[in-house]
Amino acid sequence: MNDEELDISALISIVLKRFWLIAGTALLGLVAAILVNVFMRPVYEASALLMINQENAGKLDETGYGSFASMEDYYRTQYQLLESRSLLESVYNELNLSQYEEFAGGLGALRHAVKIDPVTRSRLVNVKVRAYDPRLAMEISNTLAKNFVQENVSNRISMGQDIIRALESTETSDEEQELLNSMPQVVNSDFIKSLKQQEASLERNWAQLSSKYTPQHPEVVSVKRQLAATKAQIAVETRRLVQSIKIELSGQFSGNNIRIVDPAVMPKYPILPRKLINLAVGLLGGALLGLLIVFLLEFLDQTIKSSEDLEKKLGLPFLGFVPFEKNKKKESEYAPMLKKGNVLLAENVRNIRTMLDFTLSDNRNAPLLVSSSMQEEGKSNLAANLAVALAQAGKKILLIDGDLRRCRLHKVFKVSPEKGLSYIWDADPAKADYAANVQAVENVKNLFIMTAGQRPPNPADLLNTPKLADFLAWAQQNYDQVLVDCPAILPVADTMLWGKYIPRTIFVIKYGSTNTRSAQLALDKLRKANVKILGVVIGHYKPQGFSYGKYGYYKNYSYYYYDNDSADKDEKDKK
């Protein structure tokens, strides 16, 4: 399996681990969409279709009526005119829109309700209007289209009359003459251009001569006459050109290049809310929000959940994990170790036992501590099950409840707390006898337990005495291996006191719960006390995604193992 497949598997596991969070946010998004659909006021849209022809506008360019660089400029201008303040104001006043709640805000509300939507690659444009009342939407759209057409006709007639008046006038004013001179036919005439160049040259000569001679000088008079003749010729040529288009223009402005193709009709169904789209967006948006939250939580999560986390965050070897199993039958915590056949928890604890054999290859019977950074991380559970596993391997095991503050192993193994570790400091020699404070576990051969006994007022002081060293020396002489369930490291210093005599520990973290920073602080304390950390066990491990993370093969023990009953049955079938 390559890295990409592992990454995909990890992503799927992250999603499935918090699947209900994603499902919850998706459900909230869906509920929000339903509320929008229920409470949002329906909005209707009516649309009138206009055709805007550009042909007449092209002729107007030649006559000076408007100046457009291209068709695109022309149509863009028309779309802006459709949304102009003056046009909207005429519609607003004509329909008395101030009486309607949605348009009471003035022209801004009307401008927001109007949408000019050109039809691509055509001369058509839709004038769309939205309103709560379908009839009102229709009336606004039609009125806007109608007023735009009328305004266009009025402007063309007004401008056309000005041009025709200038053409027909025998004595034109300066303003009218400027209008005629600016017409494209005049400006673009090659003959008139040459005359104007000649006029400019004569004006320069006249200015130079006037600076040297008097007005009556023959050369000055001659240039002045030529200049006057040239200007007269320009005026005649201009009049000739404008008269040549008089007939063409005289009837041109009575028509209109804009017309209504389809008036708006009253819409039957609202355009908003879009119920199906809202539901899809709400559901998808909620799910995406959930995914975002899930990956954000995963990014912020500083807990340890895999052997890779151990190596990257703590730099420690991984010994194994203890799966979390619900105790529905109220059995003891070590009951899975006593069952026949394929039991997941038992197999994993035995794997940890095997890993310890490799780790302690120089001294496999060395005494061990079981520690953790905080309480309730699975330390005592591992100690109990590992002690059973070691005893099942044929070793004589002494399990000591080293937590004189919060002892619990007497409850796990159902033995008396009236004898145990705290009594070895008793003044009465009979009560302080080491062997007298050790109890055998009835249903586990070779397993002996020393409970914490009665809680003393000064646990740390008791552990910091030579008596503890003497007791541990006795225990190592009389048992094959000693296992001590220590208190949590961060709250108290008891584990470091045990470490003075047993400098090896198995460190336990709780899957998805132990904070990396807390684990590092606890491990630093152990190292300062010269306690060797043999490795880390992940307790309360829970399967995520499709399997037990990258250890999914542990779910398939039945492929490799089968219980004794099944084996016996198979043998009988063969016979």
Overall average residue pLDDT:
83
Radius of gyration: 49 Å
| DSSP E strands, number | 12
| Helical run tally | 25
C-alpha termini separation: 43 Å
Structural summary, described in words:
With 575 residues, the protein is an alpha/beta fold. Helices cover 53% and strands 12% of the residues. It has helices spanning 3-17, 19-39, 55-63, 71-82, 85-94, 107-113, 134-168, 174-181, 184-187, 190-212, 218-244, 246-250, 275-300, 307-314, 335-338, 344-359, 379-392, 409-412, 429-432, 459-463, 466-478, 494-499, 516-528, 557-560, 564-574, and strands at residues 44-52, 114-118, 124-131, 258-262, 318-323, 368-372, 397-401, 439-440, 447-450, 481-485, 504-510, 532-541. An 8-stranded mixed beta sheet has the order 5-12-11-6-10-7-9-8, with helices on both faces. Strands 2-3-1-4 form a 4-stranded antiparallel beta sheet. A hairpin with a 6-residue loop joins strand 8 and strand 9. The protein is elongated, with a radius of gyration of 49 Å. It starts with a helix and ends with a helix. The relative contact order is 0.10. Residues 1-6, 56-69 and 545-575 have low confidence and may be disordered.
